[in-house]
Amino acid sequence: MIDQEKGYVVFTEEMKKTHTILVPNMLPMHFKLISRVLERSGYKMELLETSGPQIAETGLKYVHNDTCYPAILVIGQFIDALQSGRYDPDKVALILFQTGGGCRASNYIHLLRKALAKAGLGHVPVISLSLAGLEKHPGFRLTVPLMMKMMYGVLYGDLLMSLVNQCKPYELEKGSAQALADRWTERLAEEMSVRASYRRVRASYRPILDSFAALPMERREKVMVGVVGEIFVKYSPLGNNNLEQFLVDEGAEVVIPGLLDFCLYCVYNNLLDHKLYGMQKNVQFAYRIAYRYLVNKERDLIAAMASHGVFTPPTLFTHTIQLVQGTISMGVKMGEGWLLTAEMLELADKGVSNIVCTQPFGCLPNHICGKGMMKPIKAKNPDINIVAIDYDAGATRVNQENRLKLMLANAASKETRVPAGAAKAR
For labelling alongside 63, which of 6, 203, 218, 307 has CA 20 to 30 A away? Predict the structure, then answer.
């Protein structure tokens, strides 16, 4: 029932005992770990892993076709699940991750509720998972210990994603890297559900790195391709037509900046609000603590990978900030904002000169900060090869893949990379 004061269906304390919370799938390993942390806190969580054309078709049925493509997919996946018969609509809630910014970060939840009402499911509660506290739900509370455990899931997820991408193109047994990551995901999720501490997280880095280094690999020449863009289509196989696997099948090694950088970007933007506009004065101390905390955790992860000596670690966020200075204003923060430009410069700085910029068609912030910034980025890096790929319900996969093949053909004639450490012949 809609709370008349709040204007939406509230997730109550009673619902915590009776309702299953469905989670949209953007980053399978990350979200599985985060879901397990929430389960340990007493919530019944289920990660949606459905795919196929019916997802977009369902979204288009209940959302205007000019709506942002990620919104169409997320809403379509939720309603497809509710109409599938697998769940009791009276015992299900939905959860949507929000950061408090523009675009999907704050507006999707209202689109989702309108779509649910149109589908006759307006009684289904939609939970806002937001550190900014955009909405209040008595049955769902984020405590500091819970948020720290969720951050451990982000750290583990970033590490596993990086290792899979660095091993997959060179593996002798197809699927071995992903299978190992899946086993680690289950193991880490179980460990985090029983006991979780940062000391244990740091201690786990070395065994994870050792296990991936032990995978049978062979030396092959590979083109390195970075992937940036709007956060959903950058990460989600549903949103980008399984882009990572396509690039690997075409002979590339994929490099994708981790989710932790986006978390740091969100926190850092609040510090910038105070510096640039005098805003957020009352909470600057908390944001500074959060920023230092996250940077230190990223520094620990980078140090663990660097000392191991086999795999290439991610770039420290503070260095990424330095790279973008003078290219785009730090006040540009709608959507992925200046981070999108920064990630392309970060990849170029690491020697990854081939970049796919994934964009929902018609997404103005991403067209400005992605496609619109290609010229100044190329001016600084003349050898860089960037292709912008639009994703929406009307875009054909064949056209997208043909453009990617052309990029790869151009890249193959210029540079290749042989694996270091883990990808040596065994």
Answer: 6
Q: What is the pLDDT of residues 373-407, one digit of tens each?
A: 999 999 999 989 999 999 988 888 899 999 999 99
| 3-class DSSP assignment, residue 387 | strand
Q: How many helices (H) and strands (E) does the chain have?
A: 17, 10
pLDDT of residue 423: 44
Give buried/exposed letters for 388-412 (b at 16+ CB in 10 A, else e). bbbbbbeeeeeebbeebeebbeebb
The CATH number that applies at residue 66 is 3.40.50
Which of these three, 108, 141, 174, is where a domain ends? 141
Residues 135 and 243 in one domain: no
Same domain membership, residue 248 and residue 378: yes
Q: Is residue 25 part of a domain?
A: yes
Judge if 124 and 226 occupy the same domain: no
Q: Would you say 30 and 263 are in contact if contact means Cβ atoms under 8 Å apart? A: no
Give this prediction's pTM: 0.91
What distance lies between CA 251 and its chain's CA centroid?
23
- Within 8 A by CB and 6+ apart from 289, the residues are none
Q: Which domain holds residue 39?
A: 2-141
User: 230 and 127 in one domain?
Assistant: no
| DSSP string over 317-367 | HHHHHHHHTTTS-TT--STTHHHHHHHHHHHHHTT--EEEEEEETT-HHHH
| Per-residue b or e along 14-52, where b marks 16 or more CB atoms closer than 10 Å to that residue's CB | ebbeebebbbbbbbbbbbbbbbbbbbbbebbbeebeeee
Between vectors from CA 299 to CA 297 and to CA 302, what angle results, nearest 5°? Answer: 115
Residue with tokens 């299900």: 92
